[in-house]
User: Fold this.
Amino acid sequence: MCVNSGVHPALGEPAAALYRMIMQKMPAAPEYTEQTELERIERWRADALIRGGYDAEQAMAIAVRHDVDLHGAIELLEHGCTPELALQILL
Assistant:
């Protein structure tokens, strides 16, 4: 059998047809969107703020503001501020 003939050596089918048949039966690969470094940092900041006492929405509002000191935001809650008042102060 000629190597360039396009015929599969075991099955006798053209290689391109065999490839198409296999690919049609394979499930689509899940899409993976890689996080950027900035997104990872903001997620880390939000997680820290949630652990500090903010709810998820409040935490994300603060986390994306890089001008807001993360430790200062948590300290406000530790010193008795409500999350709502802390948001007014910080933002």
